[in-house]
Structure formats: C-alpha cells, structure tokens
Amino acid sequence: MSAPQETDSRRRLNREEVLRTALELVDSEGLEALSMRRLGQALDRDPMGLYRYAANRADLLDGITELVLNELAIFPTDPDWQAQLRRIAHDLRLLALRHPNVVPLLVTRPLSTPLGLRPLGTLRPLEQILGLLIEAGFAPNDALHVYRAYYGFLYGHILNELQEYIVDPEENVALLRLGLHRLPARDFPNLRELAPVLADYDGEAELDEGISILLSGLAERLTTGKEAPAG
Amino acid sequence: MSAPQETDSRRRLNREEVLRTALELVDSEGLEALSMRRLGQALDRDPMGLYRYAANRADLLDGITELVLNELAIFPTDPDWQAQLRRIAHDLRLLALRHPNVVPLLVTRPLSTPLGLRPLGTLRPLEQILGLLIEAGFAPNDALHVYRAYYGFLYGHILNELQEYIVDPEENVALLRLGLHRLPARDFPNLRELAPVLADYDGEAELDEGISILLSGLAERLTTGKEAPAG
DNA sequence: GCCTAGAGTCTACGGTGTAGATGCATTCGG
DNA sequence: CCGAATGCATCTACACCGTAGACTCTAGGC
Predict the structure, then answer these.
(1) Which residues on A lie below 8 Å from B182 (Cβ)?
(2) How many domains does chain B have?
(3) What residues of A are in contact with residue B124 (Cβ under 8 Å)?
(4) Least confident of A54-68, A136-150, A165-179, B24-38
(5) Residue B3 maps to a domain
(6) Per-residue pLDDT averaged across A105-129, rounded?
(7) Is residue A173 a contact partner of residue A199, using CB atoms and an 8 Å limit?
C-alpha cells in the first residue's frame, strides 16, 4: 500500500489511467516515443493488453487529445462572456505550453476525422463556447462565425508562439543567433536584422492584446446587430 | 523518348524529382503512405538509393513542405501591400485545399525545429512578407508583429476550413448529418442545431471578410503610427 | 589493361502495429 | 463439489518500417 505504483502489477487498469501515462510519455519523450510496446512497459503490462482500453494507436492519440482538452474549464453560463473568452484563451495557451508535444495532435487529428465522428471530448469546447455566445445574445448563426474567428485566432497564436518557443531561454538566444547566422545574408536581411526582437517574444502579452482587439470588434457587432467577422 | 516515365529506369534522378513524386504520393494516398520503400517503388528505384537525395525521412518531409511553399508567389516590392497580402492569403488557402494532406506538415514541422535551423525555403515567405511590410512603411519591429497577426490569422483559418472540408459535397451533408446525429442531444444542443449552417461554409468569403478587417486595422495603425496589433 | 571512385544494390537489424492462437483464472450451472 | 464456460492476459507471428553497412557494378583516368 505504500507504493501504489506499477509494482504490484495485478491492479486493474482503466482507460483514463492508460491515457494518463501515455500523456506523460508524450510530454517527456515526444510523440514518436509513444508506441504500444513502450507504453506497455511504462505500465508494466503486456502491450497487447492495452487494446482493451484503446482500439488502436489512432484511438490512443484521440484519447490523449481528449484528455488534454478536458483540462480546459469552460462555464457557458457565465454572463460576462468577454472575460470568459479572455480567460479561456489564456488557459488554452498555458495548456499548450504545458503540453507542447501534444499540440500537433490538437491541430492535426481533427483534420483527418469528419466533425461529427470526432471524440466527444474534443467537441465539448466548441459546443460550450457556442452556448456561451448564444447566451450572450448572438444569433446562433453569428455565434458560429464568432467561434471560428476566435478559435482561428487562438490556434494561430499558439502555432506562432510555439514555433519560437525553446525551453531554456539562455539557449534560446544562443540557438536563435546561431541559426540566423547560418542564413545567407543577402537572401534574408530582414530576418537577420530582427533576430533580437524575435528573441524576446512575450506570448502572453501578444495574445492578450489580440484578444482585446477581437473582443472589442465582437462587442460592437453584438450591440449594433451586424453580422460577425470571419475567421 | 515517348515515355519519359519511370520505365527506362537508368535516368539519373535529382532531389526535386524525388520530392515531387513524394508529394504526389502524399497527395493521393496520405502522409502515412509515404515510406522509403513505397516511394522507391513509385520511382522504380532501390529504396536505399533515395538516401542520396534526402538524408532521412524527416529531411524528406521537410523537402515536401519546402516544395509546396515554393508554389506560393510573393512580390515583396509591390507597392500595394494590402492587395498583395490579400492575394497571398487566397493563394495560400488554395494551396492548402490543393494539398490537404501536407497541411499537417506545414503546421507541424516548424514546431520541432528551431527557427534558425529550418529549411531555407520555408523561411522565404516570412522574409519576403517582412520585406513587403517594411517597404510599405512599417517599422521593422511592427512588421514582425503584423506578420504574426497575419500569419496566425491565415493558419487559423486554414485549420478551421480544413476541419470541415470534405471532398464530395453530396457526402458532406450526409456525413455531417450522420455524425451530428450521433451526438447525444442533451449534451450538444447547439452543435446539432447548427448542422445546416456548418454544412454550407464558404471558406473563401469568410477568409476575405477576415482579411478585410485585419487590413483595415493595419492600415489605420500604419497611418496613425501606433503599434500594430498582436497575433 | 588496370586502378580507383563513386553510384547503385542487397542484406540485415531492431523497431513498429496488430491479428490470431494459446494459456489461465474465475465464475456459473448442475 | 465438480465440470463447463467465459472472459481476460499473454504469446507468437506477420508484414511493414527506417536505415547502417557491406557488396557489386560501372565509368573514367592513366
């Protein structure tokens, strides 16, 4: 009882438990480190046994994205929809920074599955944000457009920020300089000149600024009753 | 000579040729269909011989993204920067629709490679758009911010649109209805109600609308000399 | 004619996802 | 209390993967 780990290996697992250690594996060693055999040995179980909790590897990946998205709290009945959208944006950003290795999953998996057939957990944010917007007074049609603009902006920002994200900030500048120095000066003058600016990128501030612009635009469209902008 | 295909297999290949048929393979059969062996047999060559043109599989993928991005024409000296940005946006959208299977690559590869070490071809759009903006009068600092907003919006939109994209529009409605019907009504009322709206999503119009909003915001900031919005 | 260098080929190794057979333990029917 | 059945865990095996290293073959220089 002192060690509820994998040592007494006869404990019965469940899907969530499997997904959780799969997530740990991805977080610590990257996506391609996640194989059935590797996961099996992390759980001290036969790899084949895992098929009891995930139909196949793809389903495992879907489960991970679902698990991660469940970390995101949304309160669709909050009357202050702007504050809510702003908080969700920051939360999602932090979530992406916490699990950078699963961001490719977040972004990629939906591309290969028609909307209606996706894991329910991944549709929850969409549903709830639609609810939030409709509650706030948007017509359902417009709510969808607003969601697209919001979601598009968010994912765009996350991709932006993660592309320039490197764990050790010390190393950041070094690597950046190193890499940019490699660029042929005559073909990439602008990029090289902007190296220092690239190096100190404040993702949180940039996200917040962008969200402010978006929200003010949306609020105006809500009160004047015009159609919402595209995303 | 009548068939410059793979039949007389003694012709010497080059990297571009290899990448091009790799791209064809990905376009027609998906990303996971691209293996060294498969590609080798598509070129009627020994799979090992391909390592002459790509250091490894990752390099092959990088090459494909580079090849695809090269389809994008940018004229950094065009004085009408707004028209230019609008055209590029539409071109990139079409490019994504033309090669939906490589979009995951476009989006994912940069996440695993520090900016400075990326294939030069993938940095060209960044460099040239920075040039365009600086030429237009933005301070280099602001140009970077503007680029991020622009790029983030674009990629966000593409991800949005591709998630709802299905080849056969006939099937589209069917699948969508089918899928959404599967959703538990009490948990997903909004999503189910919006099914018809989801079905006819005009990506081009939505992109154009969004770009207009973005550009007008940017133009204003350019003339008033304020800082650019975040992305 | 021979030697060399390089391109093309083959084999082999350690990994992968997963189908199917097999072993095992537990529970149920009599 | 015993046998059968039922479901879970495990094992083996197959087809595929990326790629290191050895080998063969060819073309060109002397």
Answers:
(1) 116-117
(2) 2
(3) 187
(4) A165-179
(5) no
(6) 92
(7) yes
